[in-house]
Write a structure and sequence with these properties.
The protein is mainly beta. The protein has a single domain (2-607), classed as Maltoporin, Chain A (Beta Barrel). The chain has helices at residues 2-14, 53-59, 64-68, 136-139, 414-418, and strands at residues 30-31, 39-40, 48-51, 74-78, 86-90, 98-102, 105-106, 125-132, 146-152, 160-168, 172-182, 186-197, 212-226, 229-243, 246-248, 252-254, 260-277, 280-296, 305-322, 325-340, 344-361, 366-377, 381-394, 399-410, 430-443, 448-466, 471-492, 495-508, 521-531, 534-543, 558-570, 573-580, 599-607. It has a 22-stranded antiparallel barrel. Strands 3-8-9-6-7 form a five-stranded mixed β-sheet. A two-stranded antiparallel sheet has the order 1-2. A hairpin with a 2-residue loop joins strand 13 and strand 14. It starts with a helix and ends with a strand.
Length: 608
């Protein structure tokens, strides 16, 4: 039945008539994450990737992790199917060493230190900005290996709306809709989404699927009371429920009835900006993020718990643009609490001051960047980080050279500090030092772009459990280094090609062992072909073998092929289909946990 469904989707896709294609909308390459102020991407010394809304639409996947999974320099580690915990490794750094932001607000959980990306849907995402290497100078804790900023959509222009519905394998149904608009003085966007699926067995060898349900609401409202001021309000609410499987020591994961995780999040953020004069911007951001996770299991006692975390942020930033020099500085205060009901209820706070300067010389062909930050944490005291970078454009040869050096740190999580019997309130922060060198080359009037980056990251004072006592201590040291290669080509106006390769050497310096769940080799390629109203996209992913921290044998290498097709029936009506894991490969991201096999989905989108 599955193969017949896939064949039918192919027939519907390829038999559709063709009409003239409307022109693409080209978004300006303006980024905000690299320097914490808006600037052209061509002035960014850091190794940076931008995933636009057009890229997200072409891929057509429901979850943010599905977008990031095909990024050459990122490794997604998900413990099962939809809704299962999903974290992100970057350049060998673990999930707690990569800072995840949503509209500039820290998303990492205060209790664990890492960000669970499993519940983030793509329907409300405008773009994703990724900067690699140590970025603690501007962003503080967790930004040791890089920063991922997920920027949501905002309203512009006259009143408009959209509605999409899709369904497919594993009894999956997803709907999303929005209403947005704006004037010269105001803008607004209201959106909602709902997803429900029977899912797959979380246990790799299980037979019972684990269902997942996700609901979210968001509002992004903005106003410009005067020509020299603005205010923006961001409200988000999400709730999801995931069926889980139990892990039994000596046996592994087994099918489990009625083991359920409920998750609820709230975000309220407000940012006000004023411009005392044309080249001086002052902004104040206040945010409140609440996260509540409850797991229930009628069979066991250890699978019943509730963790509630809260994070409050105040950030006061100043940016002065005095060409050729731009200076950004600010003060940040963050208060975090975590309550593991019945175990501990603790809080920490952090105060920081940061300063960054960017200087453009030789008609902006040479960009110099430097920054310094001092964090004062309530448990371990001060952490000082800094960074430098340079970008040189050799315009006659259409080449760009990049070099960066920076330091990073990660504060101990609240569980590291206070979980009874498995914590240590004397922990110091993890620290990192990173370098990278990059080269970009344009050919044939930018129809071909080649890029290569070498990186090296040293980690020390890593927080690890001491085997005899299981008490965490600052005893770990690691070294990650590698090469990232990327190429894109536009051989014809209706044909786009992309390819990427990362070679990674990630070692535990104390034991010489390769760090778990880090593939030595990763390859991604994509092909996009447009014929009038029809666009077909194919993606290929290869992950080499790697070890797992929970089980001895290596997880085998694997390859995935995904296909997507979209057809524009009218200006306001489009159809789309998607086939994931076309060859029905069996693979693992975490040892013992299941992953989806061949699956197919189709849907319709209406805009008005």
């Amino acid at each position: 039945m599955k193969k017949r469904s896939v064949s039918l989707l192919f027939v519907l896709l390829l038999s559709t008539p063709a009409f003239a294609e409307p022109p693409d909308v080209i978004l300006p390459e303006i980024v905000a994450t690299a320097s914490r102020w808006e600037e052209p991407m061509e002035r960014v010394p850091q190794d940076m990737t931008v995933i636009t809304r057009a890229d997200i639409e072409r891929k057509g996947v429901p979850f943010v992790v599905d977008i990031l999974r095909f990024q050459t320099d990122i490794q997604i580690v998900q413990s099962g199917g939809p809704g299962a915990n999903a974290t992100m490794f970057m350049r060998g750094g673990s999930g707690s060493q990569v800072l995840v932001l949503v509209d500039g607000i820290k998303f990492n959980n205060p209790s664990t230190g890492s960000a669970d990306l499993s519940g983030l849907l793509t329907s409300d995402v405008e773009r994703i900005e990724i900067i690699k290497g140590a970025q603690s100078t501007l962003y503080g804790s967790e930004a040791m290996a890089g920063v991922v900023n997920i920027i949501t959509r905002k309203g512009t222009g006259k009143l408009k709306g959209d509605l999409s519905v899709e369904g497919g394998s594993f009894a999956t149904i997803k709907t999303s809709g929005s209403v947005s608009g704006g004037t010269e003085r105001t803008n607004y966007r209201l959106s909602a989404s709902w997803l429900d699926t029977d899912g797959i067995p979380t246990a790799r060898n299980g037979s019972m699927p684990n269902g997942y349900n996700n609901k979210s609401l968001s509002a992004r409202l903005g106003a410009n009371p005067t020509d020299s001021s603005s205010v923006e309000l961001n409200l988000r609410y999400g709730t999801d429920k995931t069926q889980l499987d139990n892990y039994i020591y000596g046996i592994g994961l087994v099918d489990t009835l009625n083991y359920l995780q409920s998750h609820e999040t709230y975000l309220v953020a407000a940012t006000g900006k004023i411009f005392p004069w044309e080249k001086y911007e002052q902004s104040l951001t206040l945010s409140y993020l609440s996260d509540d996770i409850t797991t229930t299991d009628p069979v066991t006692s250890y699978n019943n718990y509730r963790t509630k975390t809260k994070a409050e942020l105040l950030d006061w930033q100043h940016t002065v643009e005095l060409r050729p020099l731009t200076v950004t500085g600010g003060l940040t205060y963050r208060y975090e609490t975590a309550e593991n009901v019945g175990a501990f209820d603790q809080s920490t706070n952090n105060r920081a001051v940061y300063l960054n300067a960017k200087l453009g010389l030789l008609d902006d062909t040479l960009i110099l960047n430097a920054g310094l930050r001092d964090d004062n944490h309530s448990t371990f005291g001060n952490a000082v980080t800094y960074r430098t970078g340079a970008l040189y454009c050799l315009k006659p040869l259409e080449m760009r050279f990049k070099a960066n050096f920076g330091t990073g740190f990660r504060a101990p999580s609240l569980s590291d500090l206070y979980y009874p019997g498995y914590s240590n309130p004397e922990l110091k922060p993890e620290k990192s030092t990173g370098y990278d060198l990059g080269l970009e080359k344009e050919l044939f009037d930018k129809k071909v772009i080649l890029a290569a980056t070498w990186f090296r990251q040293q980690y020390r004072n890593l927080i690890q459990s001491n085997a005899p006592t299981y008490i965490p201590e600052n005893i770990g040291n690691a070294l990650t280094q590698g090469v990232e290669l990327k190429a894109s080509a536009l051989p014809a106006d209706n044909l786009k090609l992309n390819a990427g390769y990362t070679w990674l050497d990630a070692l535990n310096k104390d034991t010489g062992a390769f760090l778990p769940r880090r593939p030595r080799n990763k390859v991604t390629t994509s092909v996009e072909y447009t014929l009038a109203q029809l666009t077909v996209t194919g993606e290929y992913l290869f992950i080499s073998s790697r070890s797992d921290s929970l089980q001895g044998p290596d997880m085998a290498s694997y390859s995935l092929i995904n296909l997507r097709g979209a057809y524009l029936l009218t200006k306001n009506l489009s159809l789309f289909v998607r086939i994931d894991n076309l060859l029905d490969r069996s693979y693992e991201e975490v040892a013992g946990y299941g992953t989806p096999g061949l699956s197919a989905y189709g849907g319709i989108k209406v805009s008005f």
